[in-house]
Write a structure and sequence with these properties.
The chain is an alpha+beta fold. The protein contains 3 helices and 7 strands.
């Protein structure tokens, strides 16, 4: 009877240990997923925010890549309003006819950026380069040529509709959700993981002590019988 109870007790302890191990593994996997998803978003957001604050007259970039939000359909259907596009910094000499480029609008306020296709490359009298540009959806070319110094970058690719999400991330609510919340989640995960690990170690230690006590009791019992 005592042997059966002992076996039952050990089985129960084994199940509890397995559950604890499963919880720990699940939290570890969850933490890894959160890190993979949230850390890049967090780093990207913080980098763009810091760069935009330090260089207000420049478009923030990461390794030469510039994320831009499209606000109009002038390049429809290749690029549409609400898309997030990525450009890369390029020298004016690298641009070819037919390329899609991002540039500071020469007819704008000096900070607005337009993404249009290069119709032709113009060599000015002073030897400088300028670009005649046109939106694919527009009936006519842009009125003013784009000087080389207005070039922002060469268009690479787009993520449809992602620009709306980026615009949300620039609001106070988006900053809280996409920057503050990831930090809280990562810190919270680490605190919970550490507490569960410490509790698991404590339970294992207590189980080991109980087993040692049982072994001592059995040894004392055998000595008493002898």
């Amino acid at each position: 009877m005592e042997a059966a109870l002992e076996v039952k007790s050990k089985l129960s302890e084994t199940k509890e240990t397995q559950k604890s191990s499963l919880r720990h593994t699940s939290l570890t996997v969850l933490g890894a997923v959160l890190c993979v998803i949230l850390i890049p978003i967090l780093v990207l957001n913080i980098s763009l925010i810091v760069k935009s604050c330090l260089h207000r007259d420049e478009i923030p970039n990461i390794g030469g890549y510039l994320p831009l939000i499209v606000l109009t359909d002038s390049m429809y259907p290749e690029i549409q309003s609400g898309d997030l596009i990525f450009c890369h910094t390029a020298a004016p000499e690298e641009i070819k006819e037919g390329d899609v480029i991002a540039f500071f609008d020469p007819a704008g306020n000096g900070t607005s950026v337009v993404t249009h296709r290069v119709n032709r490359i113009i060599k000015e009298d002073d030897g400088s380069i300028a670009f005649e540009t046109k939106g694919d959806a527009n009936n006519a070319a842009d009125e003013e040529h784009v000087p080389a110094e207005k070039l922002v970058g060469l268009y690479l690719k787009r993520i449809p509709g992602a620009g709306k999400a980026v615009m949300f991330m620039q609001t106070t609510e988006g900053l809280v959700l996409c920057v503050i919340c990831p930090i809280i989640l990562l810190v919270g995960y680490d605190v919970i993981r550490r507490r569960l690990y410490e509790r698991s170690r404590k339970e294992d230690t207590e189980a080991l002590l109980r087993e040692l006590e049982e072994l001592r009791a059995k040894a004392d019992e055998r000595e008493a019988k002898e």
